[in-house]
Amino acid sequence: MNPADVRLDPVIHAQARLRVMTTLAALPTEDRIAFGRLRELLDMTPGNLITHLRKLDEAGYTASTKTGSGRGTTYVYLTEAGRTAFDQYMRQLRALLEPVTEEGDS
Amino acid sequence: MSEEHTSDTSTPSPAEMLAITERQQQRAERALDINPGLLFGVWGAAWVLGFGELYLTIGDEPVLLVPLWQALGIFFGCLGVAGFITVWHLANSLRGLRGPTQKSGAMHGWSWALAFLGLGTLIAATSRMGISDDGYAMLWASGSGLLVGLLYLSGGALTGSWTQYCVGLWILAINAAGAFTGIPNHYLVMSLAGGGGFLVAGTVLTLRGHARTGPSPSHERLPGEPE
């Protein structure tokens, strides 16, 4: 594989969204995190985080559930597709940085 | 592509992106992960001090002359501080999380509370039949050791953690052997071998934690975490 051909997933390949994905991937599978706690771990403004989460939602990488009615807490989590995409992104990123070791690997 | 640049000022190089994700991963893990080294350290200190103090103050020829209520007060004070730090640490780590990890953590926490409630009930019922003060003290000390050993055994089994499992085996063994030394000698066994065992486990886990800090795979799984 020629490293120059690697096309990094544009949905993840942006500083803010990569940090969101990294944080969600640090949670065990099927665990969800409250919007407020996620924002704390990222030091993002609510508006900023909502914007990026919307993009990740649209790509099917993240999803959220809401507890209670009205002003309940929103819990965000990584979907299976999101975890797969993140793992692949990380593999590609590492491959880009270590092109020498990639001989014969697919 | 132009749309990309409206929300993100710039896209750094792959090396910078890798550094960003590693930094964020460390930050998330530090905030979210339960630190078993800290908890073993706290409980180790509580047992060394608490049971050590009981050994020195209780018995026919105590080294230190302290009223029983004060001796027990200091003992439960040590355990109370350790319990407070444990609850504080768990609440901090698990804050804002929902899902299987939080659920099994809560169930495990309740099993500790219920186990000791059960032990208390059993000893209260037994003491109605008339037992000596030493018998009463032995039931509490060795009964607690049995529960702690069993709970670590099952905790280690369910999370696939050999460290926890071995701590459970160790506590069961020294508790069974120590019980034959009687009161107050059993307190010394619980203090040095029990509390000391926790401190060793805490040190091992802390050193192991430091050893694997640094560039790590995309995300390491906790022991026992579902694949």
UniProtKB/TrEMBL annotation, chain A:
Domain of life where this protein originates: Bacteria
Record InterPro entries: WH-like_DNA-bd_sf, WH_DNA-bd_dom, WH_DNA-bd_sf
Keyword annotations from UniProtKB, A to Z: DNA-binding
Ranges where the Winged helix DNA-binding domain occurs: 17-96
Pfam families xrefs: HTH_34
GO terms of molecular function: DNA binding
Family matches, as SUPFAM superfamilies: Winged helix' DNA-binding domain
PANTHER family registered for this protein in UniProt: BSL7504 PROTEIN
Name of protein: Winged helix DNA-binding domain-containing protein
Lineage start: Bacteria, Bacillati, Actinomycetota, Actinomycetes, Actinopolysporales
Automatic annotation (TrEMBL), chain B:
Keywords from the named record: Membrane, Transmembrane, Transmembrane helix
Parts of the chain that traverse the membrane: 37-56, 68-91, 112-131, 137-155, 162-181, 187-207
Protein name from the UniProt record: Uncharacterized protein
Highest classification ranks of the organism: Bacteria, Bacillati, Actinomycetota, Actinomycetes, Actinopolysporales
